[in-house]
Structures are given as structure tokens and as C-alpha cells.
Amino acid sequence: MRRLAAVFAGDEVSLAERRRWSPVAVAATSTLWDEDAWYAIQAREVRYCREAGLLALLVTWVNSMAVYEIWHGDFAAAASLVAEAEAIAAATGSRRSPTGL
Predict the structure, then answer these.
(1) For a Cys-Cys bond, which of 22, 37, 49, 89 suits 58, CB 3.0-4.6 Å?
(2) What is the pTM of this model?
(3) How many CB atoms lie within 10 A of CB 15?
């Protein structure tokens, strides 16, 4: 799990592999309490989804990032991310669970 977290926190993973395995890597980072890798993976996925306009994926990553912010006590950032996730879900009709909320 440590290797997975380290590899996915870096830039050596292809886009296709990131799409497939980033959720698993995030689970590994939270299990290991590797907050730096956890943040790095999620921030990259949020950034990529925003840039590419991948709203269906973005709502998941934004919710996940909100959980990270809650764990770090930044409730204002978490609330902003939750609002973004709710707006995306409303616009796309997504039924994703609001984990950040």
C-alpha cells in the first residue's frame, strides 16, 4: 500500500491508470494515514476533472476532498467543496452520495 500511495502521489502514472486506480490509491493513503499522498492524489484529480470538464467524476473527487478538509479542521473549505458538489450533482442529475456533507 505504501508503494501504491507513493506512486500515485507522483506523476509517473498514466491518465488511464489514474482513472482506474486513483480511488484505490486514496483508500490506501487514508488507511496508512499518509496525508501528503492523500492530498496530492485528490488535488490532482480535482484539478484534472475541472480542467477537462469531467463533471461526473468531479463530484466524487470534490466530495472526497471535502472529507480531507474536514479531517484537517478547515470547515470553510469543506463547506465550499460540498456546495460545489451539490451544484454539480444538481446540474448533472448525479445521485452520488454526499460524503463531504
Answers:
(1) 49
(2) 0.82
(3) 9
Per-residue H/E/C for 3-61: HHHHHHHCCCCCHHHHHHHHHHHHHHHHHHCCHHHHHHHHHHHHHHHHHHCCHHHHHHH
Amino acid at 56: A
Q: Which amino acid belongs to residue 30?
A: S
Give the model confidence (pLDDT) of 62-100 as tens digits: 998 999 999 889 999 999 999 998 888 888 887 766 666
Residue 82 sits at φ, ψ, to 5 deg, of -65, -45
Residue position matching grid coordinates 463530484: 59
What phi and psi values does residue 96 have, to the nearest 5 degrees? -65, 145
Cell numbers linked to 23: 480511488
